[in-house]
Write a structure and sequence with these properties.
The chain is an alpha+beta fold. The chain folds into two domains: about 90 residues, Alpha-Beta Plaits (2-Layer Sandwich), CATH 3.30.70; about 70 residues, no CATH class. Helix content is about 30%, strand content about 15%. It has six helices and six strands; from the N terminus they run αβαββαβββααα. The strands form two sheets. A four-stranded antiparallel sheet has the order 2-3-5-6. A hairpin with a 4-residue loop joins strand 2 and strand 3. Helix 4 crosses helix 5. The longest helix has 15 residues. It binds iron/sulfur cluster (2 copies). The site of one iron/sulfur cluster has 13 residues, from helix 2.
Length: about 200
């Protein structure tokens, strides 16, 4: 009866003269471990805009917005929907386009605040015939590297390679798609038409 009280008083006295075990968060932010699974960040130089991270995200936290007029693809990641599962990092085709950071704090009063979103923008290649999206330019170059010499059999890869070194303006298609359009940068549907519907 009496002994437990002595033990509690002893512990209370000891705690008065020992440092606190708890952290002083948020006055002193806690530094997460390097391996902590925090919010994902895009790395523009390494991302090719393929959209795989959008496909594999289990919470649909990432949205693709294609602006065909400006020729730009924007990937927008909403941190309020992100569960920090790491699927986007694991399945990224370049292995370096998106990585989980060790940042974990998201405290905002406005859900439209810029810090709620992580974005990356990539240039789009659009079909010179119908204006539909083919892929991001960096994605085409990434695939070209993987294919090696075989890539030069495909005009889209050739044209993107030229664009790496010089300005190549998109050519306009005449009244209808023709055999000559085979060597233009066109989508698979229009490329098919150049072969099937050509009246040469
Ligand atoms: S960490 Fe998971 S939930 Fe968050 S964006 Fe990546 S795939 Fe989606
Ligand atoms: S390269 Fe990686 S980060 Fe970029 S869109 Fe593709 S999967 Fe996402």
């Amino acid at each position: 009866m009496f002994l437990p009280k002595i033990r509690e008083i002893t512990e209370a006295l000891r705690s008065l003269f020992t440092p606190a075990f708890t952290t002083k968060y948020p006055l002193k932010p806690y530094i997460a471990h390097d391996e902590y699974r925090g919010f994902p960040k895009y790395y523009e130089e390494e991302c090719v805009g393929c959209g795989t991270c959008v496909q594999v995200c289990p919470t649909s936290a990432i949205e693709i917005i294609d602006d065909k007029q400006k020729g730009v693809r924007k990937l927008v990641l909403d941190y309020t929907s992100c569960s920090q599962c790491g699927q986007c990092e694991e399945k990224c085709i370049t292995d370096k386009g998106i990585k989980l950071s060790s940042e974990y704090v998201l405290s905002v009063t406005d859900l439209k605040a810029p810090e709620v979103y992580e974005t990356v923008e990539k240039d789009l290649a659009v079909c010179e015939a119908c204006g539909d999206v083919i892929a991001c330019r960096d994605h085409l170059l990434f695939v070209k590297e993987r294919l090696g010499a075989k890539a030069y059999a495909h005009p889209n890869f050739l044209i993107e390679t030229q664009r790496q070194f010089a300005e190549v303006k998109p050519s306009s298609i005449k009244d209808k798609i023709r055999r000559e359009d085979l060597i233009k940068e066109v989508c698979p549907v229009c490329r098919h038409k150049t072969v099937v519907n050509d009246e040469f």
